[in-house]
Amino acid sequence: MTHLLIIGGSDAGISAALRARELDQNVDVTIVVADSFPNFSICGIPFYLSGEVPDWRHLAHRTAEEITQTGVKLLLNHTATIIDPAQKRVKVVNTQGQEQWLTYDQLVIGTGAVSIKPRIQGLDLPGVFLLHSMDDSFAVHQYLTNHIPQSAVIVGGGYIGLEMADALTHRGIAVTVVEHSPTVMKTVDPTLGKLIAEELKRHSIEVANGIEIKTIEQVGTQLKVSGSDSFHKTTDMVLVAVGVNPLTNLAESAGLKTGIRGAIQVNRKMETNVPDIYAAGDCIETWHRLLSEYVYLPLGTTAHKQGRIAGENAVGGNQEFAGTLGTQVVKIFDLAVARTGLRDSEAQNAGFKPLTIEFETWDHKVYYPGAKKLRILVTGDSHTGRLLGAQIAGHYQGEVAKRIDIFATALFHSMKVDELSELDLSYTPPLSSPWDPVQMSAQAWVKHWTKSYS
């Protein structure tokens, strides 16, 4: 019997376990989970804290019982402290300090990532929170319930920061978002970043760009947040959400090679440099399908895919990860913003000759009530006509996610921009147009390309 041991009970670890059991009912699978929340949706935390998802238990993709019913063993509230590759064993310790060694034939590491702690004085003060785990969310929820804050400062204008701005506003809290970059959500073009800022301001959120927060001080019952350009704000609570770093100290101590930002290096089969040890999810470097190189790009969707491949290969499979395109979407109040592939600047840095056009149209036939504007940026290679990326912003009911997924599919198959017009896409007046907005934006790109480069 093969003994498969998995460290980490989030997206990658659970996917690895379930896939291994699907393929081999005889494999013995144990998952070491540092907390008591296996397979919880970290992406759902803002909606729990907003009150839109009132019961935190609903954030579980699967309950512990559902997981164990597949034959997978869960070792909850246990932390792996040592990996001994020579003896093929792992030391774990529980919350009472009791230690034990677990042996394995194959090991999957899915330790994920941890919140970046920026160099800000006062991060440990009461009322100041990082937000990445279920325990973090419980701490924030308890503070919201017990202290009933009237104001909050969010340090970081990325995905989590903006979703939490929405969530806290939903609770009636006055929110200020502070971002070091010139615009919020620096993963999209500045034109879309400005659109997001307008949506935030429309919901009475104060936005401060180009500010580096340096100190947080206790002033009576409140907190004073100070930064560059004489920024000062007194508030009831502070949320710090400036990104994550891979959690790889355990892997490094076992001799696994690490690379970008300390992430574990793997091949496309999820194999590390140490025999019989695989790794997947937010703790590893990720193969980028368009760049044909490894990057650090932690995403839940990617972690699920990588975990599935690691689990299959651990029981004798031979699958390879097809690669990421960085496809993402976020809802901020009534606005949805999405991207896939490369932005103009990223494509240029990668050696392409990009051309990007911006196009605006309706999400469906305007004569049918409720039509919403979509703003679409299309990036293609001016030498070859190949699609390189796309960004979309529009009302969240305007099928933004569907449209970015069309672009992502086209990117996956290395399509040229003009080939998007050939796709057989669905149409009915309440939902689209005979030419879908994706196709109209592609045609606008081709028109500009032909005019400028012919």
Protein traits:
454 residues, alpha/beta, FAD/NAD(P)-binding domain, five-stranded parallel β-sheet, 11 helices, 26% helix, globular
Could you walk me through the main structural features you see in this protein, from its secondary elements to its overall organization?
- This protein has 3 domains: 3-43 and 52-114 and 244-314, FAD/NAD(P)-binding domain; 128-240, FAD/NAD(P)-binding domain (3-Layer(bba) Sandwich), CATH 3.50.50; 328-453, 3-Layer(bba) Sandwich (FAD/NAD(P)-binding domain), CATH 3.50.50.60.
- It has 11 helices and 25 strands.
- It has helices at 11-23, 45-50, 64-68, 134-147, 159-170, 190-202, 249-253, 300-314, 344-349, 400-412, 437-453; strands spanning 3-7, 28-32, 73-75, 78-84, 89-94, 99-103, 106-109, 113-115, 128-130, 151-155, 174-179, 206-209, 213-219, 222-227, 231-235, 237-240, 244-246, 277-279, 286-288, 293-295, 328-332, 335-341, 354-362, 373-381, 387-395.
- The strands form 7 sheets. Strands 3-2-1-7-18 form a 5-stranded parallel beta sheet. A 5-stranded parallel beta sheet has the order 9-16-10-11-12, covered by helices on one side. A 5-stranded antiparallel beta sheet has the order 21-22-25-24-23, sandwiched between helices.
- Strand 11, helix 6 (190-202) and strand 12 form a beta-alpha-beta unit.
- Helix 1 (11-23) runs parallel beside helix 8.
- The chain is globular.
- The termini are far apart.
